[in-house]
Amino acid sequence: MKAYLALSFSNRTKLTTEIETISAVLLAHKITPWFFVDKYQFSNTQEKEMMQQALHDIDACDFLLAETSYKGIGIGLEAGYAKAKNKPIVYLRNKNTSHSTTVAGISDYQIIYTDAADLKHQLELVLNKLKPNYDL
Description:
Blueprint: E1 2-6, H1 16-28, E2 32-35, H2 36-39, H3 47-59, E3 63-67, H4 73-84, E4 89-94, H5 101-106, E5 109-113, H6 116-134
Parallel strand pairs: 1-2, 1-3, 3-4, 4-5
Helix pairs in contact: 1-6
Organism: Flavobacterium agricola
Pfam family, one: Nuc_deoxyrib_tr
Protein name: Nucleoside 2-deoxyribosyltransferase
């Protein structure tokens, strides 16, 4: 199993604790975390290659986690594509950040967390709900 994590590239470093928490929870459930922003580097002139790679990677994943604490157009595009491919969408954001109506509106599960421990707990609950569909 593999989970694609969509998040803001420009704010990646601000989410280090959250990404470490998500990784640990996924790995404990034998799910490979796929962080697109950490796997590749594209120049400003490689937008087509970047999007083709992102869509290919989403196709190869079982579900998508959309970390929207820091908004980014790419997160919405990735989530929308995953939804069109009938992949479950998990919306995540820190409760002290702005709500994303578009990503939340297409999500199957929502995690509004206060800190890393709360994120871990809520992600565990969501993965347990996904288990019957994926035999996690």
